[in-house]
Amino acid sequence: MTTVVASESSSPFDDAQVIKEACLGLGTDEKAIIQVLGHRNSNQIKLIRQAYQELYQEDLIHQLKSELSGDFLKAICLWVMDPTERDAALAHQALEKGKPNYKLILEIVCTKSPEELLTVKRTYHSIHKRALEEDIASHTNGKIRKALRGDSDNEFFTVVRASIRCIKYPQKYFAKVLHNAIKGLGTDEDALSRVIVTRAEIDLKEIKNLYFDRNNVSLEQAAAEDTSSDYRTFLLTLLGSEGY
C-alpha cells in the first residue's frame, strides 16, 4: 500500500505556479516544492509536468535541477519522473559506471510484470538508442564466463541469490536493502532514496513493517537520524511521516 498522502483536490496548473514561484528571486523555497510534489501521486505529477511545460515552456525536471542540489535533488527528480522513465534512468545509471550495479538491474527486472518490463525496455531504447538487453549483456558476459570457469569473485552468484530473494519476497528484499543502506558508518543515499521513491506507491507500508520487525526501530526514525535538511524532510514526506 502507498505511504504517500496525496491531495485529492489539487489543480496541476495551480501546483505548477506554486513551484515556479518557489524558484523565483533569491533563494529557493524548498519547503513549498516538497509540500506540492511530496503530496502528489505519479498521475498527478504527470499532469503537473504537462501544465508546467504549457505555462512556462520548460521541463519541470530541468527547472528543479537548476534550483536544487545534492541528494535532495536526485531523490526529487526520481520522484517526478514517470515510473517507466524512472526505471529506464535507473537501469542506465546502473550500467554507465565503471563497475555496474547488477543488484539495481535485478530490482528492475524482477519486480516488473512482462508488460511493465517491455514498456521499460521501449523507453530505454527510445532515450538511449540501444536495447537494454544488449547493454546488460555487454557488461555481464565476462562475469558469466568467469563463473562457469570457476574463477568468479562470487559477485555473479551473489546477484543470483539476491534475484531469487527479490522474486520470492520483494518487500523483505527491499527492507534488507534499506537496512544495508543505513547501517554502520555512512549512508548509501542512492539506495535509500531509490527504495523509498520507487516503492512509495506500491508496497512501502509493508516494507516499513518488515523493517521495524527486523531492526526494532522504525524506518522513519532510522532515515531521520541518517539524513538531514530538505532531503530528510522529503523522504519523511514520502514515508507519510513528515511530522516525525
Topology of helices and strands:
Layout: H1 12-22, H2 30-37, H3 42-56, H4 60-67, H5 70-80, H6 83-96, H7 102-110, H8 114-128, H9 132-149, H10 155-168, H11 170-182, H12 189-199, H13 204-215, H14 219-226, H15 229-238
Helix pairs in contact: 1-2, 1-3, 2-15, 4-5, 5-12, 5-15, 6-7, 6-8, 7-10, 10-11, 11-12, 11-13, 14-15
What's the name of the CATH homologous superfamily of the largest domain? Answer: Annexin
Distance between the termini: 20 Å
Task: Label the structural class.
Answer: mainly alpha
The total number of structural domains is 2
Average predicted confidence as pLDDT: 90
Approximately how much helix is present in the residues? over 70%
**Radius of gyration using CA atoms only:** 19 Å
Say what the CATH topology of the largest domain is.
Annexin V, domain 1
Family: Belongs to the annexin family.
Protein name: Annexin
Pfam family, one: Annexin
InterPro entries: Annexin, Annexin_repeat, Annexin_sf, AnnexinD_plant
